[in-house]
Structures are given as structure tokens and as C-alpha cells.
Amino acid sequence: MGKLKITQIRSTIRRVESQKRTIRALGFRKLHQTVIQPDNPQIRGMVFKVKHLLQVEEVK
User: Fold this and answer.
1) Is residue 59 within 8 Å of 1, Cβ to Cβ?
2) CA 17 to CA 24: how far, in whole Å?
3) Complete DSSP assignment for the chain
4) What is the pTM of this model?
5) Which residue, among 25, 30, 37, has the nearest Cα to 8 in the 3D structure?
6) What is the dihedral of CA 27, 31, 34, 36, to 10 degrees?
7) How do residues 12-31 score in pLDDT, each as one tens digit?
8) For an engineered disulfide with 15, which of 11, 19, 36, 54 has Cβ 3.0 to 4.6 Å away?
């Protein structure tokens, strides 16, 4: 499996608590931070839940 390069592009201010927790679980601590996560169904589901806050790229 590949990896996903995920960047947080929007703030979690005024978002529901479950979305804030999902962003933290993905490894984000601040805005415009980039994390590398494995490309698996669990991470894809988390990304889908907060896709309006993120930018996602596939890394080989």
C-alpha cells in the first residue's frame, strides 16, 4: 500500500467536536501542517469525514 500526504488547510474553529477529534487523531496540531499516513481504509474514512478541511495527495 502507498501513503497519503495530508495537509490541513482550514481551521477547526466552529466545527463539531467529532471533527476536531478526527483532525487530532490524524496527527494534526496546527494549521497548514502536513502529515504522512498509510493509505488504508481507516485513514481514508477519517479523511472522508473531514475532507472539507484537508488537502490530500497520494505518495508512492
Assistant:
1) no
2) 11
3) --EEEEEE-S--TT--HHHHHHHHHTT--STT-EEEEE-SHHHHHHHHHTGGGEEEEEE-
4) 0.94
5) 30
6) 20
7) 999 999 999 999 999 999 99
8) 19
CATH superfamily name and code, 3-59:
Ribosomal protein L30/L7 (3.30.1390.20)
List, for residues 39-54, the tens digit of each pLDDT value: 999 999 999 999 999 9
Q: Determine how many CB atoms are found less than 10 A away from the CB of residue 39.
A: 14
The residue whose grid cell reads 500526504 is 5
Residue 1: its pLDDT value, please?
Answer: 79
Q: Are 10 and 53 in contact (CB under 8 A)?
A: yes
**60 band by pLDDT with thresholds 50, 70 and 90:** confident
